[in-house]
């Protein structure tokens, strides 16, 4: 599920939640700043990867993780304890 027109934003976040319906990955993509409308769209992963292929590198992260992208670069990955683990990964 994504906020409508969010992929045009320079900064977005992806958050994976558990407890979703069957067939739902649990990912939500939203804007860092709330200037985008509150409308939501449901899209398939293959559609998302065509629009923003760099997202593929985070889609296998576990539930309760949050990722911040600036343009096509990862800025942060927060684990289930809200600890930014991105610095440890890129070392």
From TrEMBL:
User: What is the species listed in this Swiss-Prot or TrEMBL entry?
Assistant: Bacillus cereus
Q: Which domain of life is it from?
A: Bacteria
Q: What is this protein called?
A: Imm33-like domain-containing protein
UniProt xrefs under InterPro entries: Imm33-like
- Positions of the Imm33-like domain: 1-79
Q: What does the record give as the organism's lineage?
A: Bacteria, Bacillati, Bacillota, Bacilli, Bacillales
An example of a Pfam family matching this protein is: Imm33-like
């Amino acid at each position: 599920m994504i906020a409508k027109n969010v992929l045009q934003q320079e900064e977005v976040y992806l958050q994976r939640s558990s407890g979703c319906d069957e067939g739902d990955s649990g990912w939500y993509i939203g804007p860092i700043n709330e200037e985008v409308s509150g409308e939501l769209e449901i899209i398939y992963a293959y559609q998302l990867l065509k629009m923003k292929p760099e997202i593929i590198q985070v889609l296998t992260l576990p539930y309760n993780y949050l990722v911040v992208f600036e343009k096509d670069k990862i800025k942060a990955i927060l684990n289930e304890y809200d600890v930014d683990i991105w610095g440890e990964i890129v070392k």
